[in-house]
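We were asked to recover a plausible sequence for a given structure. The inputs and outputs are reproduced exactly as logged, with field labels preserved.

PROBLEM: sequence recovery
POSITIONS: 560
GIVEN STRUCTURE:
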């Protein structure tokens, strides 16, 4: 495999200092502003992160940006030594790195790459210039001096065959991330990035931690054999791990995955997802504010359906842009975007964009098992209008002689309280419901899902939410339509028995949560889930419900 060799250049700052205290004040304000931007960017990445490992690394970085000691040093450098903000951040980060490098504790040393990462992020905000410039254009083995966690998260994973780094250890954050992404990785190769040039052929034996540069034929063959053997072993392990999700007393639960982009499809497949319960499509619109063509979209949807093949259907959610997923150049400037021009509201006023998406979904449905789902439906009239437009596009496809599945299932998300309360009416108009508890919680309790200050109020086990979940499930059952839950609640071990007891037998979750969810389901009785839900619905306080759920988990012997 070809190598891409990368060495990072450090930013070079002019040496001049602040001229007067006014300039110091401006630099200080710029530093604080850059920190706020970095924190909000990290939170956005956390929302998009598809694994617990990614989230915990991002959380740790977000704490580091706010670290009082780090701030104290920078403030002192700016106000007392008249440094400009960029060099002050660099100097303070270097101080911290020197301190950590000499620390005897392993954990402390591991934080070095995170400090470098946040320093680069803050400096990028200050200079308004992206310092993360790594780009992969074909599948390659990345050989680098170092790679920052945020760089790794922003790369196209399909192009990374393996990673070889001069520094780091197997437990460093980058290595953890690479494992979560299923990318072979060798750390601590000291001078690999100087010895390997871009375009060299390399082969790696990740188990022994050896990188071969321009290997002979014999070595390449041996490494290929080792790789095939490791893959077969992994397949065997995941086959054993993937057993049907059936409770001890025989209730079959269907486990699907939530996918954003095509990056984590393999994890979903490996962990036994029985379909895609939620395909978030916003990334097709949000990358640099440009829209994807009908052909490109049809190819993406078709590829996903083909990857899942006979396993199960792929539920494609139409663009849920707006709110916390603003499309640059198309949206913005609203006082209250979460209650504003988002999802179907945006799509119905940009029918050009919506038409292309629906047409692409329909065209892809000719090739695989696909369902369409509309987000943020707030009531019956809105749903009628969206379905009427969908039917109009279907008719256009027929007129153009395009092949599509005439029986493609049409569903709506239930994520606005008004939709849950009117779910008896909505259930007569669609083939399935999928409950998005992330937004349903936010809108029911009137608590911003991304605001740390009010996070203590954000509780999916709030009695009002449990009532809405129950009502939605009852109404879906009455009309005999499909019912799933695809908010984060579905993959949270604490809530799985509760949602099953509330009537949900299809749970769609982050691919990384599937194996654990299956394990829990196989260790519980459906009858106990029913009693648990009944008891929770009779309680009056969140705290009591929480205790009840924890007690249930302790009794089944669940440990994180
Ligand atoms: C939800 O709101 O629960 C949901 C699944 O959608 P998203 O998280 O993409 O808003
Ligand atoms: Mg939502």
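RECOVERED SEQUENCE:
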């Amino acid at each position: 495999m070809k190598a891409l060799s990368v060495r990072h250049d450090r930013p070079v700052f002019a040496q001049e200092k602040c001229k007067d205290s006014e300039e110091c004040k401006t630099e200080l304000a710029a530093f604080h502003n850059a920190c706020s931007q970095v924190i909000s960017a990290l939170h956005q990445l956390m929302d998009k992160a598809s694994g617990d490992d990614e989230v915990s690394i991002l959380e740790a970085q977000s704490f580091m940006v706010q670290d009082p000691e780090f701030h104290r040093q920078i403030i002192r450098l700016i106000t007392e030594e008249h440094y400009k903000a960029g060099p002050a951040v660099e100097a303070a980060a270097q101080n911290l790195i020197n301190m950590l490098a000499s620390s005897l504790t392993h954990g402390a040393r591991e934080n070095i790459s995170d400090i470098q990462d946040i320093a680069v992020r803050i400096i990028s905000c200050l200079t308004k210039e992206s310092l993360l410039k790594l780009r992969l254009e074909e599948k390659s083995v990345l050989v680098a001096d170092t790679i920052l966690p945020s760089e790794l998260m922003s790369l196209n994973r399909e192009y990374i065959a393996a990673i070889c780094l001069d520094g780091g250890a197997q437990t460093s954050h980058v290595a953890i991330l690479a494992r979560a992404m299923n990318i072979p990785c060798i750390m601590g190769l000291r001078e690999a990035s100087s010895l390997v040039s871009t375009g060299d052929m390399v082969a790696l034996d990740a188990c022994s931690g050896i990188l071969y540069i321009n290997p002979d034929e014999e070595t390449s063959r041996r490494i290929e054999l080792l790789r095939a053997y490791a893959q077969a072993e992994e397949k065997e392990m995941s086959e054993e791990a993937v057993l049907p999700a059936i409770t001890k007393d025989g209730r079959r639960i269907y486990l699907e995955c939530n996918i954003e982009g095509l990056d984590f499809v393999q994890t979903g497949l490996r962990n036994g997802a029985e379909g895609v319960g939620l395909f978030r499509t916003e990334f097709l619109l949000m990358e640099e504010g440009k829209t994807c063509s009908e052909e490109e979209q049809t190819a993406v949807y078709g590829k996903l359906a083909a990857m899942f093949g006979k396993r199960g259907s792929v539920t494609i959610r139409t663009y849920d842009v707006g709110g916390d997923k603003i499309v640059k150049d198309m949206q913005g400037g609203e006082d209250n975007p979460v209650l504003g021009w988002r999802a179907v509201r945006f799509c119905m006023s940009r029918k050009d964009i919506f038409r292309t998406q629906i047409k692409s979904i329909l065209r892809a449905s000719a090739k695989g098992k696909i369902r369409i789902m509309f987000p943020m439906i707030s009531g019956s009239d809105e749903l009628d209008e969206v379905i009427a437009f969908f039917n109009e596009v279907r008719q256009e496809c027929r007129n153009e002689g395009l092949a599509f599945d005439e029986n493609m299932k049409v569903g709506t998300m239930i994520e606005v309280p008004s939709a849950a309360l009117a779910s008896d009416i909505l259930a007569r108009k669609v083939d399935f419901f999928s409950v998005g508890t992330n937004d349903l919680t936010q809108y029911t309790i009137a608590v911003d899902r991304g605001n740390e200050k009010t996070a203590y109020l954000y509780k999916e086990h709030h009695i009002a939410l449990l009532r809405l979940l129950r009502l939605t499930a009852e109404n879906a059952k009455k009309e005999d339509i499909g019912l799933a839950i695809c908010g984060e609640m579905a993959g949270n071990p604490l809530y799985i028995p509760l949602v099953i007891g509330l009537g949900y037998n299809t749970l769609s979750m982050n691919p990384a949560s599937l194996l654990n969810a299956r394990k829990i389901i196989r260790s519980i009785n459906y009858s106990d889930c029913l009693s648990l839900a009944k008891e929770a619905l009779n309680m009056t306080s969140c705290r009591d419900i929480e205790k009840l759920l924890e007690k249930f988990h302790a009794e089944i012997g669940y440990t994180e």
